[in-house]
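ok trying this again, last paste got cut off
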Amino acid sequence: MGPQGHVSERIGRHRLGGPFPRFELHDLDGRLWSADDLAGARTVVFCFASWCTCRDQLPKWQAVWEERAHSFRLLGVAQEALGDERIREVVADAGIAFPVLVDRSSFLAAELGFRVVPTGFFVDAAGRIAYWHFDDFDIVDPRVRLSLDAFLAGQPVESPPVEQALSPAALALFAAGVALSDEGDDALALQAWRAALELDPDNFLIRSQIWVAERPDRFYPVVDRDWQSAELIADGYEKPLP
């Protein structure tokens, strides 16, 4: 194994079995969360977005959490470059009681190496990454449910293989665009995001949030996946929509 490690064991800057990355993110109630808050309890981290059909999983996760009598910590992490207004509406409509953090610059994506939501992580009581599931993490998937049951029972779990090589530079440029957006320069923000997408064209966190900035009507109130697929074809992107 080379110095970078096999992609199935380390994606982004962090290794499966290693500590969850250090972070500071606010939830929708204004509470500041950090990696230290994950210690002492088994935690499921569900990364999603208001602009993705994975938002429909929120009430399903709520139901699982209630079935388990809140015996584990459940955190949603929303990828929302344009702020928290849309995700507030989604969370309120779904009647969600678990905390939802807002990751505007996709910091955790850069640290952990995911390009697409939904992506999920199981973090043990010592704050270590026990399991990750990239791209198609869905609680209705029997594989995810069985893995969750094993994790909560303290049994070892095997993560699905991961074969991707994310560009950290792309998400760093994306984060710079978020800062420009905060300063009110939306044109320069979009310019930075498009440059980031050129560095990592498979990164749908970046691509989708460009689409949302330009055509919110294609994502709210309904996510138009047919339109997204047509946009990919028009852009000459030859892979299917995740």
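PB: full thing came through this time. The CA atoms of residues 179 and 185 lie 9 Å apart.
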